[in-house]
């Protein structure tokens, strides 16, 4: 990024960070996780899985159960309140001062930290530049669009040069198109600044696009930690497989070094026995009757422009989603054959 603005990237370590709320509800099972300096880590999961609680523990808005520790670099910050952790936060709800100008909002954190006026002015200007907000400096917040407000919120969080940037569903309140463009902007910003960032979302597309690594959570537990590719191609279990992208369940059997699918018996070197067999739509191919493994009828066809997404019902077993390449004329009621590459079939517990 062509800007003098630079942040030190600290690693964050969570050690046995669980959370039990008054009344005994366990929102978070004890969690151990190291977030590398400069890494963007995304907590992803359905509502109520504990992602916001984890973020709030990192921020210092919530303390972990006794025994849990939060470290920023070598410093144990477990007992420090949020104002002494030097974190920047961005929320879905913006949390800006509506009757102050953009520049005043961005300057606020510097004022609280008693930064001298001249220095303040320079840093605000630098930050507004970075967020392409220069022309809005004198506008009041209630005169801005949602996307512009969220850029102000980012500027306000970053101007104090936080050790870590925490983002809680920052794009959820915006419409789809704005969400996409601001997501790209956040991506550029995080890469450019090299800041350690923790991002909470329930949107898998956002998680895949922004995360260096994704922590998939379910019911207060970590289901899997991995890069977007690891999570997509090697899901740890059926929950992760279903939560990220589209996944097919193959009604087949793995036994004695073979995989039986439809009328075909294929060589198989994966786990056998009580496993679920899964395959991504892009790893199924349409074929002819002679070289197909599994016959079925097209139950639905959705034209997506570059491809047509088909739902194919085999004679027995679950329906399968498969993509036909552009300009395919396949439609409801057509009889098709599918080929399965056994090397692409996943077996999960
Ligand atoms: N202050 C609180 N007191 C009691 N229970 C709470 C409190 N805050 C959260 N919880 C509970 O802890 C669990 C995890 O909540 P959390 O907000 O971390 O989930 P989340 O994954 O961020 O969900 P969402 O996407 O809906 O915000 C939920 O069951 C929630 O009801």
Automatic annotation (TrEMBL):
The keyword Ligase does not apply. The keyword Repeat does not apply. Keywords: ATP-binding, Nucleotide-binding, Transport. It comes from the Bacteria. GO terms for molecular function: ATP binding. Pfam families: ABC_tran, TOBE_2. This is ATP-binding cassette domain-containing protein.
């Amino acid at each position: 990024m062509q800007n003098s603005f630079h942040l030190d990237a600290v690693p964050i370590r969570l050690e046995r960070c669980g959370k039990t709320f008054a009344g005994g509800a366990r929102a978070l099972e004890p969690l151990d996780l190291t977030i590398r300096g400069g890494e963007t880590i995304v907590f992803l999961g359905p509502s109520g899985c504990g992602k916001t609680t984890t973020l709030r523990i990192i921020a210092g808005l919530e303390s972990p159960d006794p025994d849990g520790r939060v470290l920023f670099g070598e410093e144990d910050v477990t007992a420090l309140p949020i104002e002494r952790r030097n974190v920047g936060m961005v929320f879905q709800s913006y949390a800006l001062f509506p009757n102050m100008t953009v520049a005043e909002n961005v300057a606020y954190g510097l004022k609280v930290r008693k930064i001298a006026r001249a220095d303040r002015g320079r840093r605000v200007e630098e930050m507004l530049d970075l967020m392409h907000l220069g022309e809005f400096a004198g506008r009041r917040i209630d005169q801005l669009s949602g996307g512009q407000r969220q850029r102000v919120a980012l500027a306000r969080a970053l101007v104090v040069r936080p050790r870590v940037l925490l983002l809680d569903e920052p794009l959820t309140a915006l419409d789809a198109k704005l969400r996409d463009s601001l997501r790209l902007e956040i991506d550029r910003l995080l890469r450019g600044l090299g800041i350690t960032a923790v991002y909470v979302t329930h949107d898998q597309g956002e998680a895949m696009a922004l995360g260096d690594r994704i922590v998939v959570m379910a019911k207060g537990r970590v289901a899997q930690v991995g890069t977007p590719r690891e999570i997509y191609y090697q899901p740890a279990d059926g929950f992760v497989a279903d939560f990220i992208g589209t996944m097919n369940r193959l009604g087949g059997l793995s036994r004695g070094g073979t995989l039986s699918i439809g009328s075909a018996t294929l060589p198989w070197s994966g786990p056998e026995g009580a496993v679920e067999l899964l395959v991504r739509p892009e790893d199924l191919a349409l074929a002819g009757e002679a070289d197909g493994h599994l016959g079925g009828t097209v139950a639905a066809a959705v034209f997506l422009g570059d491809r047509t997404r088909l739902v194919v019902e085999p004679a027995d077993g679950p329906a399968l989603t498969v993509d036909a390449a552009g300009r395919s004329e396949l439609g409801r009621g057509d009889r098709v054959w599918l080929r399965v590459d056994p090397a692409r079939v996943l077996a999960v517990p």
